[in-house]
């Protein structure tokens, strides 16, 4: 329905595609969260960052 409305009035910007892409991205990110797929900020990243912070804290105490 929204596609027909969008294409009937021929706007300069096809806002329907922006809305569809936004919803698609939201569904994709939600699916990643539900199924436990975290390639960006997962457990490996968390452990690595904790080690870095601990090392930094130890080096700051030595100085």
Model regions low in confidence, pLDDT < 50 over at least 5 residues: none
Q: What proportion of the residues form beta strands (DSSP E)?
A: under 5%
Instruction: Label the overall shape.
Output: elongated
What's the structural domain tally? 1
* Helix-strand sequence: HHH
Number of helices: 3
Rg, alpha carbons: 22 Å
| Alpha-beta classification | mainly alpha
Helix content: over 70%
Main β-sheet description: none
Give the integer mean of the pLDDT values: 83
* Tally of strands: 0
How far from one another are the termini?
66 Å
Transmembrane segments: 12-41
Protein name: 2TM domain containing protein
Domain 2TM: 1-54
Pfam family, one: 2TM
Topology overview:
Blueprint: H1 2-9, H2 15-34, H3 43-62
Q: Can you give a write-up of this model?
A:
This is 2TM domain containing protein. With 63 residues, the chain is mainly alpha-helical. It has helices spanning 2-9, 15-34, 43-62. It has 3 helices and no strands. The longest helix is centred in the middle third of the chain and has 20 residues, at 15-34. The N and C termini lie far apart (66 Å).
């Amino acid at each position: 329905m929204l596609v027909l409305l969008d294409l009937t009035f021929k706007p300069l910007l096809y806002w329907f595609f922006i809305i569809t892409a936004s919803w698609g991205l939201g569904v994709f990110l939600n699916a990643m969260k539900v199924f436990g797929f975290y390639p960006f900020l997962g457990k490996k990243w968390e452990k690595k960052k904790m080690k870095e912070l601990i090392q930094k804290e130890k080096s700051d105490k030595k100085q």
